[in-house]
Amino acid sequence: MEEPLVLVSDESGVRTLALNRPKSLNSFTGAMHGELAAALDAAASDAAVRCVVLTGSGRGFCAGQDLADPAVAPNLEPGAKPVDVGATVERFYKPLALRVRSMPVPVIAAVNGVAAGAGANLALCCDLVIARRSASFIQAFAKIGLVPDCGGTWLLPRLVGRARALGLAMLGDKLAAEEAERIGLIWKCVDDLVFESEVRAVAQRLAAMPTRALAATRAAIDAAQQLEFAAALSHEATWQTELGGAHDYLEGVAAFMAKRAPVFSDR
User: Fold this and answer.
1) Which domain holds residue 239?
2) Which residues make Cβ contacts (< 8 Å) with residue 98, sequence separation at least 6?
3) Do 125 and 161 belong to one domain?
4) pLDDT digits (tens, 9 = 90+) for 112-156
5) Does the predicted model carry a pTM greater than 0.85?
């Protein structure tokens, strides 16, 4: 039997999804897209899952699209019809980015090695990015005559500003994880020796928190980027009305008043 292209494991409410094409630095094929989409949907529908960790097997996180995949490999025969790379984005990368950013639980990108092209932007789609100090991020698209995809054009300027976004996207230089943290591209860079324990600790912390409120926080912050200030204030009130009638708010207040640890369960 062929080994799965996405490895799935569970620990105390945390589901880890590991891209599993280590010999090709976990670059994407249509088949791996299919397995990852199914794994994300399964995690979203499983009430026992309270946090998702997305990582890679071997020495890389994800090198982006496998350019040998028939879906994107150009036909070099004279007069041949060009391959429609945009169709691959619409079929695979757009649904992937939207799925990650709409998960009902927090999503951590545990970047264990190089994250290039769509692999880099997949990581940036996640709520928190924790990277090994030896990891790196590369917007490799311009090097093959393309623009950033998997949400890169939307994410980069919002994370680091237009000037840095253009520099990263146009030059395609390798960005060390420590520098990525310094400029605000990612949440945290940690030493390689403590990387796994740090990811586990943050994931377990998120899993113990009010999951529904965390997912709503993501949604509210994303929505506010498109709103005027007054509209954002009203949007916050709408969320507080919904969350204020839920179990976790009542439990959180009761635990605070009683000076005890809360037990959250909403999702």
Assistant:
1) 211-258
2) none
3) yes
4) 999 999 999 999 999 999 999 999 999 999 999 999 999 999 999
5) yes
